[in-house]
Amino acid sequence: MDDFYLVRRNLFRRKLRAFLMVVSIFVAFLIFGVLASFERAFNSAEAAAADNRLVVVNRINFTQPLPLAYLDRVRGVEGVRVASHWNWFGGYFQEPRNFIVTFAVEPETYLEIFREDFAFDPAEREAFLRDRGSLAVGEAVARKYGWQVGDRVPLSSTIFTNRTTGTRTWDFTIAAIFRPARDRVDTNLVAFHYDYFNETRSFGRNFIGSVLVETTGPEVNDRVVAAVDGMFANSPFETSTTTEGAFNKQFAAQLGNIALIVTLVVAAAFLTILMIVGNTMVMAIRERTREIGVLKTLGFPSGRIFRMVLGESVLLALLGGIPGLIAAAAACAVLAPMAGAFAPGLRLVPQTAFLGVGLMLLLGLVTGVVPALNALRMSIVTALGRD
């Protein structure tokens, strides 16, 4: 009779108890997989940033505006190769739950700064630059809603009102659909002309969300940061300038310290499961005390019994953990379109899966070692004499 057969039969002797333990482990690894994937995606957003791009925002908070007039002054700073701006629109399609990352931009300079990130068909690029009422749509958004070049689509804002219609909706023609030009670039966004937006919005005219700067090289970043922030010091709209990577990290931090959340949640889940599974395994082995005595009487070596008991806890961890990681991968696939630019490339990567399997093995070993040692040390007389 093979050991795996015995392990499997012993593990599912009490089916309800085994099922509940499997479900507990499943939930723990589902949480681990999703949170670890979010952490990786946030870090990816920072890593994908160019090292010679800076973001200038209001010193109070990046949600506060800056005067449009700041743009030309920033362009005059030594070390600035090109400067553009963008304004957060708070866009959605048809219903607020269909949230889309939407920016009102200065098209020519915006596309110049992100020339190595977004790939455009030349004719579509020119059409977008020429038509002030047009929209440039990321490939991920176009695929999600089935949009094509030439489609007429309405976008609504959670923030602004269109003073020409009295509604929160603007109508656009899709002039271009752009693709990622390199790895880890997210296309879950759309952009349209700031001038069109500025003329039609009901408030906040001639203000922008932030200034985007491409410097002549990373070596001049510190000098440009000091010059820009010094230029607007003690003004009504003081600025705070950081690298694009640091800005992305700060933006993600608005959702909380993801690394700390992952650590605390996973640690809490594992400690809870460790106690539950460990205690259950001890009880299960105690229930089988006489059986262990019989096995030893039949000539089963103590080491073999030790491995069988340890195998039960490892098998239990794998039966709950592997489906948990599979469910986490499916959850990430569902959440990825909604995560958009906040967590670009959200998915369960092999490194996270391997780490999860390692944690399963660790969980199985830690919870099984005490009952396995008890079985190893138990004498035949003690085992057969226990009620």
Automatic annotation (TrEMBL):
From the UniProt record, list the coiled-coil ranges.
none
For this protein, the record's Pfam families field holds: FtsX, MacB_PCD
Q: What compartments host this protein?
A: Cell membrane
The way this protein sits in the membrane is described as:
Multi-pass membrane protein
Q: Which domain of life is it from?
A: Bacteria
Q: Does the keyword Aminoacyl-tRNA synthetase apply?
A: no
Q: Where are the transmembrane segments?
A: 18-38, 258-282, 314-342, 354-376
| Domain ABC3 transporter permease C-terminal: residue ranges | 265-380
- UniProt keyword Secreted, yes or no: no
Q: What is its main location?
A: membrane
Q: Where is the MacB-like periplasmic core domain?
A: 21-229
Which keywords accompany this UniProt record?
Cell membrane, Membrane, Transmembrane, Transmembrane helix
What PANTHER family does the database record attribute to this sequence?
Answer: ABC TRANSPORTER PERMEASE, ABC TRANSPORTER, MEMBRANE PROTEIN
Q: What is this protein called?
A: ABC transporter permease
Source taxonomy: Bacteria, Pseudomonadati, Pseudomonadota, Alphaproteobacteria, Rhodospirillales
